[in-house]
Amino acid sequence: MVRDFSLFTSAAMQRTKNGDPHAAVACAHAGPPIFFSPYNTRDGRGTWVITRANDQRKLLQDTATFSSHRSIFASALGENWPMIPLELDPPAHGVFRSLLNPLLSPKRVMALEPAVRERAIALIDMISASSTSCDVMKDFAFPFAVSIFLRFLGLSDERLDTFVGWAKDLLHGDGIKRTAAARTIVAFIDDLAAMRRKEPADDFMTFVVQAKVDGRPLRDEEIRGIGVLLFVAGLDTVATAIGFDLAYLARNPRDQELLRSEPDRIVLAAEELLRAYSTVQMIRVATKDIDFEGAPIRKGDYISCPTMIANRDPAEFECPNTIDLAREDNRHTAFAYGPHRCLGSHLARREIVIALEEWLSRIPDFRIKKGTAPITYGGHVFGIENLILDWS
Amino acid sequence: MRIIVHNAKCQGHARCWAQAPDIFDLNDEGYILPGDIDVEEKDELLASRGARSCPERALEIDRTSDALLDRLLFNQHCGG
Questions:
Q1: In a domain, B46, yes or no
Q2: Which residues in chain B are closer than 8 Å to A332, comparing Cβ atoms?
Q3: Residue-wise pLDDT tens for chain B (80 aa)?
Q4: Which Gene3D superfamilies match (chain B) (predicted)?
């Protein structure tokens, strides 16, 4: 039941030129549906790994047995407070979720759409006016996704590079960098909350410091927990998804041409790309001893539900390793299942669709620039960089 | 066709609404409103796409009434 597997340290998870970390982890389906992986966290702690979509669904919906409270961020600082709402379990989770849901609901996201599209167009026009090639992550995906996200939080674009740097250190850096980044982010959020308390603005942090749950204002630690989660969650996930998607289209000219000539297909195609290139693993902690589908899980054990593995489950998806942009019945788990379903999923989806629509309508037939090789890696959020596209 | 809404299972993915905004109604938080949905024949394809895209399996397609009707018509046709 023990397998040599880690989303952090396995061979295909290291920085690899022209790598395909998603295909590498999909191989898990050749083995047992649940196994123990001794090093499957950043700190080298082991987790059970749940490979099947149906088992992940059951597990992530059972919040009483599988707690989401791990204090993952605070523990890097030797502290113990939850990122909210992710690390709170129901019923406490529900009141915060209800507070935040309307800010990122599907209908609310519709209102944000014009600004999102305008930002995408401005960036792409700037790129195509100056060159016939670019580094997609640096020149488009990060500035686009992060600026939309900063705008949502009410922060200015000026510090975009700084914020992205913090996120990189936090999610992909070594232990020392990670702790330093965590400290910096906490200090930033605490300062921002204090500032907005004194001088309210029309932004997210002002909303949080003025909000009430159960008829009382939020405590400092709760404000910090919400601020830190929202700040970290949007910093590199959407950019990464756009990167993997454009890399796929660069390598598959027929699909690229299909979406360019029939842009109505992009919405459905984006779902398939979310399935094929999911980037996050959910981790839960067992609250009691339980035999789960034959696995003897003990109280305190970590259990990992890697979205990228569930989304290649042959029991759930026909030909899971084939990317079929017209695939229907695509109940993928890129945004997880259960009460903790990604709060920002509706905004993330729109950003991805808009990025693809505007990129394809403005940039002609593109490919990976000759002599370059995109670098991929695994980890807490899978990543891609050095993605140089060429349309000369 | 009818869509049986298992309201408690809804976690706000809103995949149903994305497929068929006129058939599936969401509250301000983005979760589906309670109550089963009667679907007109012209909307069946869209509605079933919406139901089949729910990651939580919160929407169940109920064709029992259709099946009964089919059987009845078949039996009449065969003189049963």
A1: yes
A2: 55
A3: 999 999 999 999 999 999 999 999 999 999 999 999 999 999 999 999 999 999 999 999 998 766 667 767 766 665 54
A4: 3.30.70.20
Strands (E), B1-80: 2-5, 37-38, 59-62
**Max CA distance (Å), chain A:** 61
β-strand pairing of A388-390 with A133-135: antiparallel
Could you tell me which residues are beta bridge partners of residue A347? none
A105 chain-B contacts, CB cut-off 8 A: 12, 26, 28-30
Per the structure, the complete domain to which residue B53 belongs is given by: 2-74
Alpha carbons within 13 angstroms on the beta-carbon side of residue A159 total 13
Read off the amino acid at residue A45. R
What's the CATH code of the domain at B26?
3.30.70.20
The two three-digit tokens of residue A391, written as one number: 């349309």
Are A331 and B28 within 8 A, CB to CB? no
Distance from CA of A345 to the nearest CA of B (A): 8
Compute the nearest-CA separation of A33 from chain B (Å): 20
